[in-house]
């Protein structure tokens, strides 16, 4: 039997308790406490503009009143379409304060992608980055939006940088074009509305912990995105679990917000965890190593949630420039496997730890992690978070648990598991079992002490000639081939075989002699013959999500399209 959770202690200590108490409160309560305990501490730093916890709480109260004046009521959906900035933090907490449901959107989405999500959620108000306003306005006929408010990213900058954007210089014009956009005259502007508003009456009712706080769209790599409903309790639970895992002293951390807030990973670690521990959040509108290293000189970071390509690029840039990153005590890597070489680079330049975690939008998002101690095991997903249980079962019969070391589908149960998919009861029933267990769709193995290793996604497993081929394992071997910079492995219809294994390869500059025969010869050293690629395609780069995860579905579509 492979059941791991609070009832079964692991052999290796994580340094965290097996269980944590989840307070019965809305997510906004943590911000209120932080403002009372550390009113003068910097809550958010945006490219040098500092906002204290007292100032943030005041702006959130004013923003909440603005939303009420716009007609937003408890349960209404408020769409946020903007990059990371101070205004994003204010808008997020303002909507939650009055019991509205936040719906996060990628601000670089096309009008069509935005239209689907806005229509599906039924959002009534959208707070939108200036550059995305024209795309949102295109969707009005297909959505329930009653008001669109523009967000000027430059309004969050220090005064000096705002003035510099107006200079008649090419560099200023480029910066202004990247950050700002034109909106219709007299268009409502978020920062102006907040500045003029009176603070919300403190007696205004707060949401309950069981209320939905967030619709986070997921499933874009495997099908039409659907809104995962995360309650206040879900988000509070994951922040409490994260604090138990890190053990950080409240009021001391400096969290670098390089992950997008509209992604579940960045949202939880930067918007909810950071506020719960009274951290200073250093927010970046996009990931730029030079921008991060510049901020590091001014306000050294202690904690970096990131994806492996970010860690790699920062470590390389720091080594090349001589930048000092030794203030970073720990980093948590997620969304994809953490290569051993990347982990070593990061730990060499920082002297701190980087550990791998695992989660999904439906778990708010973190469910497992490596301990932030020498007991960590690189290459594994780690152990269950506090108050989290897992099972590993036969994907074709979820009532049958597999033996330790045997491959099976990972199931998760805990206070961070979502409430279901918005407006999709059938899909909720497929994913969320009656007894509270969440089907992850991920194939893993678990050893006798509870350590979890990811094998692959069920939906991406290739069945060729009756054999199961796990793309991640094939990719791991092929990445070690000289001349191969990156690779994605997918399955396409293959006649009698069922599916044919195809390797999409990105070559290193100047690479020679790499063809299908060479790739198969290299793969034969480690792979079964049925797992060897039967087709090879070359790409300039692999399509990736906003946080850097390879989109195998897009690769497969490209292969099928020839």
From TrEMBL:
<dbReference type="GO" id="GO:0016877">
    <property type="term" value="F:ligase activity, forming carbon-sulfur bonds"/>
</dbReference>
<dbReference type="InterPro" id="IPR025110">
    <property type="entry name" value="AMP-bd_C"/>
</dbReference>
<protein>
    <submittedName>
        <fullName>AMP-binding protein</fullName>
    </submittedName>
</protein>
<feature type="region of interest" description="Disordered">
    <location>
        <begin position="1"/>
        <end position="23"/>
    </location>
</feature>
<dbReference type="Pfam" id="PF13193">
    <property type="entry name" value="AMP-binding_C"/>
</dbReference>
<dbReference type="InterPro" id="IPR045851">
    <property type="entry name" value="AMP-bd_C_sf"/>
</dbReference>
<feature type="domain" description="AMP-binding enzyme C-terminal">
    <location>
        <begin position="474"/>
        <end position="549"/>
    </location>
</feature>
<dbReference type="InterPro" id="IPR000873">
    <property type="entry name" value="AMP-dep_synth/lig_dom"/>
</dbReference>
<feature type="domain" description="AMP-dependent synthetase/ligase">
    <location>
        <begin position="31"/>
        <end position="422"/>
    </location>
</feature>
<feature type="compositionally biased region" description="Polar residues">
    <location>
        <begin position="1"/>
        <end position="13"/>
    </location>
</feature>
<dbReference type="InterPro" id="IPR042099">
    <property type="entry name" value="ANL_N_sf"/>
</dbReference>
<dbReference type="InterPro" id="IPR050237">
    <property type="entry name" value="ATP-dep_AMP-bd_enzyme"/>
</dbReference>
<dbReference type="Pfam" id="PF00501">
    <property type="entry name" value="AMP-binding"/>
</dbReference>
<dbReference type="InterPro" id="IPR020845">
    <property type="entry name" value="AMP-binding_CS"/>
</dbReference>
